[in-house]
């Protein structure tokens, strides 16, 4: 629940879809989605559109598999969000994800989608949900799935990225029935 008088906004955390194993001599950064990953991303994009989850802003890792995931998802958006690519989503830990959410909340408290990597997605989700009577394990088990899409409501634009300031809204997974 939102705090009285506090603005809230939606946070969508998306783990990139399944990627091919790297070829010998290739960089991890350049790994592209495999066929399974493209199918996963299309499935989640359809489910996202059906629930009318629409980001106003997207911050995406520039890794090839994240960019491809974004390209598939954005085909189902009703309107074009502002998109920014952030290298630190590939190179840094979950504290950077939380910092980006907090900065966004202070500057433009509107719905935000972050497309990134594990284990940072799980760790970010844990941090936002802990002490709010919600457990990531209860919601998704012990594995944030590839192409997983976690929708949260930030309970405060003053402290959106602190423990216990996220409320679970929904989970989309390519493996749900």
From TrEMBL:
SMART domains: PGAM. It holds the Pfam family His_Phos_1. It comes from the Bacteria. Substrate binds at residue 65. Gene3D superfamilies: Phosphoglycerate mutase-like. This is Histidine phosphatase family protein. It comes from Pseudohoeflea suaedae.
């Amino acid at each position: 629940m939102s705090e009285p008088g506090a603005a809230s906004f939606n946070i969508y955390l998306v783990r990139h879809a399944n990627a091919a194993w790297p070829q010998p001599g290739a960089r991890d950064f350049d790994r592209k989605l495999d066929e399974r990953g493209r199918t996963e991303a299309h499935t989640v994009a359809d489910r996202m559109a059906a629930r009318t989850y629409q980001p106003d802003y997207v911050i995406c890792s520039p890794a090839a598999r994240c960019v491809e995931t974004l390209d598939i998802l954005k085909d189902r958006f009703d309107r074009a969000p502002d998109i920014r690519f952030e290298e630190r989503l590939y190179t840094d830990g979950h504290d950077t994800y939380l910092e980006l959410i907090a900065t966004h909340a202070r500057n433009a408290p509107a719905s935000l989608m972050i497309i990134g990597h594990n284990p940072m997605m799980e760790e970010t989700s844990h941090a936002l949900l802990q002490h709010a009577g919600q457990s990531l394990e209860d919601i998704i088990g012990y594995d944030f799935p590839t192409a997983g899409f976690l929708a949260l409501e930030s309970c405060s634009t003053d402290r959106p990225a602190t423990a216990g300031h996220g409320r679970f809204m929904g989970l989309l997974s390519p493996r749900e029935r």
